[in-house]
Structures are given as C-alpha cells and as structure tokens.
Amino acid sequence: MGLSTVRPAMPALLAAFLLAAFLLAAFLLAAFLLVGCSAETPSGTTGGPTSAPPAPTVATEGDLRLQAILLAEATRHIEAISDEDLTSRSTPIRRAAMRALARARDPRAVKALRHGLADEDGEVIAWAAYGLGDVCVGRREETTSALVAAAAALRSRSTVMAQGMISPAVALARALGRCGTLPAEQTLLALARDEGPFRVPAAHALGDVAKTRERLREDTYVGLLSLAEGDATHPPLPEALYPFSRVTHLTPSVVERTQEVALAALDRPGAGRIYAIEALAKVGEGAVERLAAVATDQAFTTEERVAAVQSLAKSPRAGQRALATVVKALAEELTPEAMLTSKTGLLLTALEALTVVKGLEATLGELAASPAAADASSARRRRLSWIRCTAAKILAERNFRDPRLRACDLDVAEADRAADPLAPSIGARAVVQAIGVDGTQLTGDRLKAWTSYAREGERRARQAALAMLVDHAEVKDSAEILLKALESKEPGLVATAAEVLTKRPLRGVKRELQNKDEGAAPAAASLHPGLKQALLDRLVPVGASEDLEALGAVIEAVGALRLEDAKNELLSRCKSPWVTIRDKTAKALAGVMGRGAPTCDQGDPMPPPVELDRLVPRTTTLTFETELGKLSLRLDPHLAPLAVTRAVTLAKNDFYDGMVVHRVVPAFVTQFGSPFADGYGGVPGLPPLPCETSPKPYVAGSVGVALAGRDTGSSQLFVTHRATPRLTGEYAILGQAEGPWDALIDGDVIQDVTVE
Questions:
Q1: C-alpha to C-alpha distance for 169 and 159, rounded to whole angstroms
Q2: Residue 4 contacts by C-beta under 8 Å, 6 or more apart in sequence?
Q3: What pLDDT does residue 165 have?
Q4: What is residue 8's predicted lDDT score, i.e. its pLDDT?
C-alpha cells in the first residue's frame, strides 16, 4: 500500500520549486557519476596516453528514479515517494523508497512502512521496521503487533533472504525495543532465547526497553541471567547482561543472582565481557573488591578497566575506598611509553571519579608535580598537564589560588601563574572548576576571579564559568555578563548563556532587581533591556551561516522568559525546515501564547543539500596525520551518501587540517570537527545535513556524525572505542576507523589529512 491516501495537495509554487530542484540535482548527479567512474591510477590521475577513452554512459530510467528518491529523502518530501516506488520490481528502488520514508520520521508514512514489513527483500523489511520504531509513540500497541508478526514471519522462512546493507533481524528487534511495550519485552526475550540472527540484537533491544521504562519484568531478568550463564547445550550469551546496565535500579530479588552470574562472566574474555562489568555497578558493594581487581588487571582491555572504574564510582563508600588503591596502582603503571596510549584516559577517569582523598595525598601530590622531560613532545606535555591539573584540582578543593593548581599546566609561564584569567586551556579549566566547586559562594576575590573568566577567559573555561551561574544567584552582574556572551560571534558562548537563562530566567533581570527567588519567569519590565534585545536579535534569520544549536538555545530562553515581543519571530520559526527548531519553537510559543499556541508540526521544505550534485561514488579513505602517528577513516557512502560526501569534501579542502580534537570520553568516543574546538559549530556558510541514521549496529571503531538534535549534523565526527548498542539508530554511521583513536586526548591536533 502506498501513500496515495495521505498526500496533501501542494501549492503550485512549492511543487515548481521541488521539480526544478530535482531536475537540477538529477542532471548534475548523473554528470558527476559519469566522471566518477573514469579509470584512475592510485595517485588519482587519469590513465596515460594509451588509455582508451571511457565509453559514453546514459543514465537509465531506474537511475533517474533513484536520484529523485534520494532528493526526496534529503528534503524530507515524502509526498514524492509514489506507490510505484514502493511496489517496484526493482529492489534498489523499493529499498531507497522505504529508506526515505523511514528517515523522514513522519507519522503519515506509517501505513506504507507497515506494508513494507511484508516485502520479500530483507533490507526493505529492515528500513520499514526501523521507521516504525521511530514513530511508535502514540501507536505503540498496533506497531508492536505488526513488528511481532513480521519477526515471526522472518523466523519461519527456511531460506536465507537477501539483506543488503542492514539486517532485518537487528532492525525488527531494535524497533520492538523502542516501542517498549509489555508484548515487545516478552517477544524480545523469546527471540533472545532463539539460536538465530535475533539472539544478540534482541538482548540489545531489551536494553532499549529497560531505558524507556527504567526497569524490566522479574521474569525477564531471570531469563536474561539464564542466557548469560548458558547451559550444557547453549553457550553463554554475554550480551544478555547489557540490559542490566540500562535500568535505574535492579529488582531486589535478582540482585544476588545478577552478581553471581556477572562475576562468573568476568572469567570469559570477549567483546561482551564489558556488559558484566557494567551490570556489577547495579548490585551494590558486594562486587567492589572484584571491580577494583579488574581496574588494575592489565589482562583486561582498557575499555573494560574504565568500565570497572566507572562502576566503582557508583558505590559512594566502599567504591571510593577501592578507588584510592586503584589510583595508586594506575599511577605506577603509567610509564612515559604508556602515556601515549589509552592508559592516560584510564588514569584520568579514576582521578575524576574520586571524591574522597584521605590517604591519597602523597600520590596526588606526586602526580600534580610530575616533571616533564626537557625534550618532551607537545603530546606528552599535554597529557602530563591533564594528569597534573586533575590531581592538583583534587588537592586544591576550594583554594583556587593553590600554587600546585596554578602551576599544573606546563604551558603556563611561571610569571603568569598568579593572574586571572590563565590563557592555556587545561590550566584555565582546572582553575575555573576550583573557583566554582560545590558549596562555595562567588563573592570577594573569588567573584573577581570568576568574572575574569566569564567575561574574557579561554573559550572552554569561559563557557564553564558562564554555566556556573545556574547555581549562583549571588552574582548581581549576571545579566550584563550573559549579555556579553549573547553578543559573541561564537555559537558556544551564545548557547551557554541562553541555556543559563532557560534554567534560571531571573539571571536576566536588572542588577538592582536581583534577588534569590528562583521562581517563575520575571516580568518583562524587570529584564535587562540590552539582554532582551540581544535575544530578539538572535531570532532574526541570518541564512546558511546560522548555527542551529545556538538558535535552539536562544528560542528556549525566549520561551522561558516569556518574551511577548518575540512572538512574530517565533511564529516565523514555526515553519522552519528543521524539525529541531520547530520543536523548540512550539514549546517557546506555548510559554508566550499559552493554549492558543500552534504546534509547529509541519515546516517549509528542507533545502536540497549541495552535496547532492557531487556525491562521492565509492568507499574513500581519509588518513589523518596526528601527533600520535597516522590514523584513518574508511568512509562508505552507501548508507550515508550526504555525510560521507561532506566529510570527504571538507578533507580535500583542508578543513580538518590543524583542527583540535575537542572531546575524548575514555571507553566511549573520540570526537573532532568543531571549528571552535569546543563542540559547537559546523561548516561556515553551509546548512546542516539531514540525518542519515540506520539500524546498523555501532561496533568498536564505528565512525558517526555528531548531532545537536535531529538533522543538525555537519562537520563533527566521532569514533567509538567499543561496541555501543545505545548509539545504534540514533546517529548516522559513515564507516570504520583504523588505528588507536582511543589514545587521543582533548587538545590533540590533526596536523594533516590526505584523501585516497
């Protein structure tokens, strides 16, 4: 069944626009693909004088239809997907059409998606299931029934069906997990007991149920523990312990059994052993001794040891006592050679987890004063600075003037240590944390130091200082300080200031009216006039250079402040092509207008991405020259053609050269691509890309697109350090990374990128 019954009539102007955009994109794409198919030598030059000229190629009707469907997907124009596409005898066309509907996340496509569950092709079924999982809210029971029936039909097939790029078993299981109903939970447990392709994805999907509902049924826990343990005829399923890490609290009746099964699983090496470590975080203090042993045992992977440290941190008493022993052992283990590996992140994770320092003063003092060799590279000095500052911050507690803290960043000259703000990022951020440590008041000398960072400090330190205003009502100049940030050209500063106003609207009132009342939004007359105007100015469209994350934060602040003067601009934003902006605008309008506010459900067409006319036609390798050597990304355009094309194009144009790695979370991800090196921003002058998500599982080394909401991806990419089921379906996968990406650290530099 197609979409003919749900297509609204299009205005003539809109139809003409889309037709013109399609014809242009189709023509340019056909021309690009023809050029891309010419023979090339490994160096990228065309064949020599004796090479025969390429034979002329004419795009077929099927090729043109695939291009049209891709345009419909990129602009979220589901009306362009016809009944003929969904029932075509061409498998690629049916796959492309179902993918476009799935990625649109449009409730109007539900009937067509359900129809796709009965297709003969596995990838069509996978896209249909994935799309239904994304629009399950509001129709959970009927969607669950359709998915259960499709899973049963798939299990009953005696022949192996064509799967294409993604697995229908994975997609069906994860869709059931997103729906999160009781029948979905029961079905997933049955599928996990199966020996077929549903076994592992069903266990992962029960983690989705656990996250959505914060718990599982007791019989589900019991069944998962039996699967994790295995028996005489069935090998253990380590992934069965993954859902335990996703619940808020375990049912008391299964705590002891969970500890028993998870401890036994630690003796079985493999990619799923980390789930046993994470499950032990839920059993209380009974597993602390074993977790501490894992954290210090080099027979375990770094990711497993980090997970053990994180699990210890969740035990406030026994866990903290154990962490003292762990930190001492890890400090001894971190030799100069090991410092350039992921073990630096392991030690930093343990230090950050500490809340009790009794008995550790000597070890922390040694770490805070660790000397750098005279010939130490910038990479070694950076890692040493992180270790020194993290240890010094713990010792300093509230004393932001502590000499060890002031000297911790090796890039801070001795003559500059006493003055605020410090310029180097690592030291500046450490000092800011000490200034605003829990329980302090920003007054006197502390307020003066904080103000220097909040007004003009190093970018990351300044953002951290601004964010502290949420918890410090005593700062009377908050409106003026936030105003200066809102007037900045940097999206990170704008977003941080706006987020403060959203959480604490009274931070925007005039100085003479400041008080400690954290109640409702202030009256419009009490707002700082400059700050009010700055917010209104930020709502005015500025074209392709507009940063959606900063804009979204401003819209939320306007709603929290209930600025009636912003009503007209908000109403225009209600038609934004970007669903993230529409969602935030609808909430803001509800704050400003009350019950009469529009819902902002439908927006203007998304602009066709410029990448459509120059798509990368084949798998491409990006090689990154870093301070730790060469790392690479192998990007495959088949699942994410737009994102891969943008990344490759940016690499060819030297966008990533000299860029700072701004985020590394040990045992999770390494992220880069922010032009401001702070996690904000994308490509100047280019709008964000539509999400190209899929149910393809995230494994160790998967390359993903970072987001600040739906359809906001641009230049920022991340690399996973381990299998991460909770990311599956949420972020586009571009390909696979090679090399020790997990050894990088915040502040490392990408020196050069080559494209093969």
A1: 14
A2: 83
A3: 83
A4: 34
The count of other CB atoms within 10 Å of the CB of residue 382 is 25
Q: Is residue 126 classed exposed, middle or buried when 0-12, 13-18 and 19+ CB atoms within 10 A define those classes? A: buried
At a CB cut-off of 8 Å and minimum separation 6, what does 502 contact?
A: 553, 556, 557, 559, 560
Q: Is 709 exposed, middle or buried (0-12, 13-18, 19+ CB in 10 A)?
A: middle
Residue pointed to by tokens 């409702």: 520
DSSP run (H or E) holding 209: helix 199-213
Could you tell me the two tokens for 670? 């390494």
DSSP run (H or E) holding 670: strand 669-672
Q: Are strands 702-705 and 733-738 parallel, antiparallel or unpaired?
A: antiparallel
DSSP 249-280: S--GGGHHHHHHHHHHHTTS-STTHHHHHHHH
Cβ 168 vs Cβ 122: under 8 Å: yes
Quick: pLDDT tens for 500-551: 999 999 999 987 666 545 556 777 678 999 999 999 999 999 887 789 999 9
What pLDDT digit, counting tens, does each position of 99-134 carry? 999 999 999 999 999 999 999 999 999 999 999 999
> 221 with 232: CB under 8 angstroms?
no
Tell whether the torsion through CA atoms of 128, 133, 135 and 139 is positive or negative: positive
CB-CB contact of 561 with 554 (8 Å): no
Q: Express each pLDDT in 156-213 by its tens digit.
A: 875 455 567 899 999 999 999 999 999 999 999 999 999 889 999 999 999 999 999 9
User: Has residue 719 got a pLDDT over 80?
Assistant: yes
Here the tokens at position 591 are 């704050």
DSSP annotation of 705 reads E
Distances (CA, A) of 269 to 277, 303, 590: 12, 13, 53
Closest by CA position to 154, among listed 143, 165, 162, 142: 162
Mean pLDDT of the region 252-274: 96
d(CA 697, CA 166): 9
What single-letter amino acid sits at 755?
Answer: V
Q: Which helix (H) or strand (E) holds 170?
A: helix 168-179
Beta-bridged to residue 752, according to DSSP, are: 625
Q: What is the pTM of this model?
A: 0.90
Q: How far apart are CA 241 and CA 263, in angstroms?
A: 11
Does residue 22 register a pLDDT over 90? Answer: no
Closest Cα partner for 24 from 88, 54, 67? Answer: 67
Query: What's the rounded Cα separation, in Å, for the pair 751 and 734?
Result: 22
* Residue 52 CB-density burial (10 A; 0-12 exposed, 13-18 middle, 19+ buried): exposed
The closest of 606, 564, 610, 609 to 589, measured between CA atoms, is 564
> What SS3 class is residue 459?
helix
Q: In this structure, what DSSP letter does residue 680 have?
A: -
**Which residues contact residue 385 at a Cβ distance below 8 angstroms, ignoring those fewer than 6 apart?**
408, 409, 410, 411, 424, 426, 427
Q: Which phi and psi (to 5°) does residue 630 adopt?
A: -90, 135
Q: Are 509 and 477 in contact (CB under 8 A)?
A: no
Beta bridge partners of 621: 634
In this prediction, residue 21 carries a pLDDT of 47
What average pLDDT score do residues 713-733 get?
Answer: 97
Range scoring the smallest mean pLDDT among 32-36, 217-221, 568-572: 32-36
Would you state the structure tokens that stand for residue 453, as one six-digit string?
A: 């960072």
How confident is the prediction for the chain on average, in pLDDT? 91
Q: What are phi and psi of 735, to 5 degrees?
A: 165, -150
